[in-house]
Amino acid sequence: MLILRHYRRISIYLCIIVLIIYVSKIIKHYINERSVRRVLSLDDTIQNLIVPKELTITNRKTKFVDQEFTNLSRLGQWLLSFEKSLPLIIQNKTEPYIILIWKHGPFLERRHIRRFTNIKFSPWENCSVDNCLLSYNSEDLNKADAVVFHLHFTKSVQDLPIRIRSNQRWIFLTDESPMHTFYYRNQKLSDYNGLFNWSMSYRMDSDIPVPYGRTVPISSTRNSYNNLTHLYNYFIRSKTKLVAIMASNCSGKNKRWKYIRSLKSILGNDLDIYGRCKGGNRTACPGHFDTDCSALNAYKFYLAFENSNCKGYLTEKVFWNGYNKFAVPIIMGAPKSDCEQLLPSGSYLHVNDFASSYELAHYLQNFHHNINNYLQFHVWRENFEILNEHGYFGSVSRHYCRICEALHYNSRANKIYKDLDDFWGKEKFCSYD
Question: Locate the Fucosyltransferase C-terminal domain: which residues (predicted)?
Fold first, then answer.
């Protein structure tokens, strides 16, 4: 009988403990719900006290001045303006356009066709035009409408063929910054002066823009993130860690790793490093481009530190490791003025916003346990969606689609790059700080 009463007492205690835990969870959820609703109900004056005015959310307006916009290719203007109607087709051939990828087509296929998977995707999938054929065969040189030369893998100007057709579009492609245009050394951009008709790069002022990603306006009917409560419950709630970086390149002329070491000395365990640099975790993320790093999902901020500080240089670090994972990218790379043109206001931080790594570190710590403040960095998702277009981690690549579109939409006027340094020179478009 005594034993029975003893077990009954233990059962009552256990029930009380379970009830307390359950009630505490309900209270915590209610508090978070109130916090989210409170953020939405604050007027602009109060919100500016929570997050500095320059970081508050505003609907992005395209900040290209009229002359800059006019100088873009027709394809670039269309991509930047987010218009639903397609540009006027300048020339539509009866036969398909032939696009020849010179020498490196099979290697580039891993990214732009297979997307680092074992599946072959059509390069014209969801493309606005599809009247194009892709070739890797050098015997198609004389009948190709466009020939693409990947400068990063070109050993020298002698690797280029002899040009026969004057109406053929020769295109130079680079996804690297001007600091790293050539993998093979002892080359100069001026070696290639007078050879190319079109440029193809991440910059929007290229004849064929192929940015790593874009943020484009969406209608409220298609937007599942226009409610901060939903955003918190399904995406933000699981973010228990502060900031991370993943990298395999342990260099950078912009001294990014010196900055990271300084941050690490201040933040300690609140900054995690993945990859082979500076004692990083090499096992948590199995692949660099092939496999997504799910460990990054737990972080509120991501150090989108590029290897170069160059015009328009915003890579998958911003669009995938940052935006796609519902983390706030902290940018070192493109100047802040470029970020203001290309990204929604209030969706990112830039190292130039802070006088030092010490100031940035302490700024981030203020957001670690304050959901009210942190959610402000995600209000932009009410109006924009992210398009990852780099081909990494299984995302879509738009490179070959964009070439086909350029052949249909861009001006047919004669054009040639007589001075490549004027368009792509590192001295003109990059800095070391």
Answer: 237-422
